[in-house]
Design brief:
Blueprint (H helix, E strand, L loop, with lengths): L7 E4 L5 E2 L15 E4 L33 E2 L4 H7 L3 E2 L3 E6 L5 H14 L4 E5 L4 H10 L8 E4 L3 H9 L7 E5 L16 H18 L2 E6 L12 H5 L2 E7 L5 E9 L7 E7 L2 E4 L3 H5 L10 E8 L2 E13 L7 E4 L3 H15 L6 E7 L11 H13 L7 E3 L2 E2 L5 E2 L4 H10 L4 E5 L13 E4 L2 H9 L7 H4 L1
Parallel strand pairs: 6-10, 6-11, 7-8, 7-9, 9-10, 15-19, 17-18, 19-22, 22-23
Antiparallel strand pairs: 1-2, 1-3, 4-5, 11-12, 12-13, 13-14, 15-16, 16-18, 20-21
Length: 468
């Protein structure tokens, strides 16, 4: 008598496996996302597959010659910066982003640039018809290139087509992986099993032929790439395309890269003719600054090896609510609470009766703690009603003891500020690589309270001692 195969219930949102169906997923907490799945259709599985005897795998030592991975330079400088110098041959890349953010536009421009350089490029669209893709290519002036186009969703048909080509493709673009389906899985396209099996087949093709495969992935409402997280572990690089619909800029960020850094970003500007590369992002984020405005401080940040200057805006106003409001856009809200607590505990500045609004201009999001000093200066400036110098840049990390800690790459931050016309800087005491000068253009602060006194200039703030 044939043994009855066991069934599993898999969440289509996070991939958590359950022994029985239930309304709410234990992994992600979403409702009505669990469907019945066949565990034999997973990675390495198959109907009636019997265990086979393995082969001996050769072992080697860690010491040996290191060969640099061969790359395909896309000629799109911002994209090559994020990938670490170009696409690695035989690698699999997952590109995620919100709908309409410009993923297909970016890949079409990259495909056109690679085709002009003599590479064989194949663009497979699973969401749009051939006519729709041609309209985009015409708008981007990529219709005259030799990019080969197909509209197909079956993975077996795609791989057979690629195998019958006279010349092996250098780059294959799959737009998108959620629309692909394979005959080895019985579930509908877009489910966890289909996405996993389709991605596995495409990655196997990339590793066996040496062609680079770029797969586009949709994102959920939380900003994560939809589908099972195992796909992100299978690919060699995960790149996120970020941006705000109300702003024209777009940021390309590497979340995972086996062949390059993960702290580099590429900046683009969305225009009617496509994505324009922004060689100097600081000018983009500082292009609409208002002079002599209280609560504005310019932060000298770093993204990988690239210095970046952005404006931090703060508004401190008396509250009419029992609990003051704290609104943050572009920064960590918990870190703002820490800065407010340090100002109250060590500087005597009480913001308990004030609403605090913090915004990073241009829609950019800051992740490094070096922005603490710029945020604190913006808060003090807004509370005192005194505008900070327009030619000064701020950076430094604030500790819970009220001291200002040094941050790396201080010299690069100051050089970037000087290029844009900034003449002074406020930074932590003991910072390395700071140019030595005889003037007072660089103010090295050791304690936050010293900086508060310098900004206030003798003006009385909302000190605890004044309220008692």
């Amino acid at each position: 008598m044939a043994k009855k195969s066991k069934t599993a219930f898999v969440c289509q949102n996070c991939g958590t496996v359950h022994t029985q169906w239930q309304g709410k997923c234990d992994g992600c907490g979403e409702w009505n996302t669990i469907v019945e799945d066949n565990p034999l259709a997973g990675i390495g599985g198959g109907p009636g597959r019997a265990p086979q005897k393995g082969r001996v795998v050769p072992l080697t030592s860690l010491d040996g010659e290191i060969e640099e991975a061969p790359r395909i330079v896309s000629r799109v400088a911002e994209l090559d910066r994020v990938t670490g110098g170009g696409f690695v041959r035989g690698s699999a890349v997952l590109l995620g982003g919100e709908p309409g953010i410009g993923k297909s536009t970016l890949l079409m421009q990259a495909a056109a640039a690679l085709s002009r350089a003599g590479h064989n490029i194949v663009y497979v669209s699973g969401e749009e018809a051939v006519a729709q893709v041609r309209l985009r290519a015409k708008r981007l002036k990529a219709n005259e290139t030799q990019v080969q186009l197909a509209a197909e969703t079956n993975v077996e048909d795609i791989l057979t087509t690629l195998g019958n080509m006279e010349k092996r493709p250098d780059l294959v673009i799959i737009d998108s992986i959620q629309t692909m389906w394979t005959d080895s899985a019985d579930s509908a396209p877009g489910t966890v099993t289909q996405v996993r099996q389709s991605a596995q087949a495409l990655i196997r093709y990339a590793k066996s032929t040496g062609a680079t495969v770029v797969m586009v992935g949709h994102v959920t409402k939380e900003g994560n790439i939809a589908g099972p997280r195992v796909v992100e572990h299978m690919v060699d690089a995960v790149i996120q395309f970020e941006g705000d619909g109300s702003h024209q800029y777009r940021i390309l960020r590497a979340l995972k890269n086996r062949f390059g850094p993960t702290d580099e970003i590429g900046v683009f500007e969305m225009m009617q003719s496509g994505l324009r590369q922004v060689a100097n992002p600081s000018e983009l984020f500082l292009g609409e600054r208002a002079d002599n405005a209280p609560g504005a401080a310019v932060f000298g940040g770093m993204e990988g090896t690239r210095p970046l200057l952005v404006e931090i805006q703060a508004l401190v106003a008396p509250t009419s609510l029992g609990t003051p409001r704290r609104a943050v856009v572009g920064w960590d809200s918990s870190r703002l609470s820490m800065i407010i607590a340090v100002l109250q505990a060590h500087c005597g500045v009480n913001l308990g009766q004030h609403d605090v609004y913090l915004n990073v201009a241009g829609g950019y999001r800051i992740s490094e703690p070096a922005a603490d000093l710029a945020v604190a200066c913006a808060l003090i400036s807004s509370l005192a009603g005194l505008a900070l110098p327009t030619d000064c840049v701020y950076f430094g990390e604030i500790s819970l003891s009220g001291s200002i800690r040094p941050v790396p790459h201080a010299g690069q931050r100051i050089k970037e500020a000087e290029k844009l016309g900034f003449k002074s800087a406020v930074l932590p005491k003991g910072s390395s690589d700071v140019p030595k000068r005889n003037d007072e253009s660089i103010f090295a602060a050791e304690k936050l309270v010293d900086l508060v006194v310098k900004i206030a200039g003798g003006k009385t703030l909302s000190y605890e001692s004044d309220e008692k």
